[in-house]
Amino acid sequence: MKYSALKGVHDIYPPDIYIWQKVESAAEEVFSAYGFHELRVPIIESTDIFVRSIGETTDIVEKEMYTFPDKADRSITLRPEGTAPVVRSYVENHFYNLPSPQKFYYSGPMFRYERPQKGRFRQFYQIGAEAFGASEPKLDAEILSMLKLFFERLDITGLTFEVNSIGCEKCRPDYKKALSDFFSKKTSELCPDCKRRHINNPLRILDCKVDSCIELRKGAPQVTDYLCTECREHFNGLLSFLKLLNITHKINPNMVRGLDYYTRTTFEVTSEHLGAQKAVAAGGRYDRLVEEFGGPPTPAIGFAIGMERLITMIKDRNKKEIEQAPKAFLATIGSRADIEGLSIAEKLRADGIQVELGYGNASLKSQLRRADKLGANYVFIIGDDELKSGIIKWKNLKDSSQGEIGIKEVSGFQGFYNQQK
Ligand SMILES: [Zn+2]
Ligand SMILES: [Zn+2]
């Protein structure tokens, strides 16, 4: 019997896993500096929270959710995104009683039943953040600034910040009407999905990836021309804060985002390295969603970063940085040396030094070969003579320098602390 992972899911293992860990700790570090706390929400939720928030007519809800009845016949869904669960948690745990704004970040797998293709998975990973309780554009700008710092921390360049405002419940109906009028002369040429979108939510035609629809929307009315005074002021406020913070950005009036819950600010961070699927982070404001979930009126904004795309960018850039080599390899000859080696290794490990040992009575030669394969920085050789004299030999595998050190002094060995990695 041979087993393999399901279609569209993947294992993550060394050396790639070290990039994942690096990205996760960069997020933790940067987001904490902005006052975000980690929130761990479940992977399964009641189906209606996604239908309600993401919208019944979206591709996610219509085609892509992993939805199934549990043993008590409740409809359960594997989360396709992180915002709805976080909002559910915010309301359920009464976080709105705490001083505003409350800020959370999350990280973990999401699930969408998509046609597997390069860079797209059915179980994929996101790191996201959500901030509740402030409507000022200052917060929107801070969020974009936080993303900028996060990407800088990972040495990712060639990014573009695209921003837009899609208005509020006051001004969006006018825009929807204008858009609907614009497309009503062309309905026969729209793709089948957009024919339905034209009736249910014409905004979503702007999201369509079908070439003929992209062609048809040339000259369509732009949302930024339909903003009410408050939305206009909010958007202008955001733009001036972005200028102040030196965040180079581009206004993209076609960026409406695929989900129903967005209001006002929407944004995407795109990379020139990613081809057609170029967004590496995306988000926006959702000032009505907390109320929809039964909470008090609470403005909110958030984003999600697509981990797989981000990891690909880092991997393509530099294969070297994903090495995770042990600092020391203890080669031992004989059973007494084996015991001594183990106890030295334990001391070093307690000091946080990564140590590997020889196994299986391997010859010195084959132990050295293994140390080299692992990319170890230093090898220590312990045999009967060394045990007698109390002095062991070390060798630096990177520059071939060598020397001796007292067996009791190994844990203070300078070589571990000199090199920066
Ligand atoms: Zn408005
Ligand atoms: Zn279309």
In short:
This protein has helices at 16-33, 47-54, 59-64, 83-92, 137-153, 172-184, 192-200, 211-216, 229-244, 289-292, 307-317, 335-350, 364-374, 384-389, 415-418; strands at 37-38, 44-46, 66-69, 75-78, 102-111, 123-132, 159-165, 249-251, 263-271, 279-285, 300-306, 328-332, 355-357, 378-382, 391-396, 402-406.
Blueprint (SSEs and pairs):
Elements: H1 16-33, E1 37-38, E2 44-46, H2 47-54, H3 59-64, E3 66-69, E4 75-78, H4 83-92, E5 102-111, E6 123-132, H5 137-153, E7 159-165, H6 172-184, H7 192-200, H8 211-216, H9 229-244, E8 249-251, E9 263-271, E10 279-285, H10 289-292, E11 300-306, H11 307-317, E12 328-332, H12 335-350, E13 355-357, H13 364-374, E14 378-382, H14 384-389, E15 391-396, E16 402-406, H15 415-418
Helix pairs in contact: 1-5, 1-11, 5-9
This protein binds zinc ion (2 copies).
Describe this structure in words.
The protein is of the alpha+beta class and 421 residues long. 37% of the residues lie in helices and 21% in strands. The protein contains 15 helices and 16 strands. The protein has helices at residues 16-33, 47-54, 59-64, 83-92, 137-153, 172-184, 192-200, 211-216, 229-244, 289-292, 307-317, 335-350, 364-374, 384-389, 415-418, and strands spanning 37-38, 44-46, 66-69, 75-78, 102-111, 123-132, 159-165, 249-251, 263-271, 279-285, 300-306, 328-332, 355-357, 378-382, 391-396, 402-406. Strands 1-5-6-11-10-9-7-8 form an eight-stranded mixed sheet. Strands 13-12-14-15-16 form a five-stranded mixed sheet, with helices on both faces. It has a three-stranded antiparallel sheet with strand order 2-4-3. Helix 1 (16-33) packs antiparallel against helix 5 (137-153). The radius of gyration is 28 Å and the shape is elongated. The mean pLDDT is 92. The structure holds zinc ion (2 copies). One zinc ion binds next to helix 7.
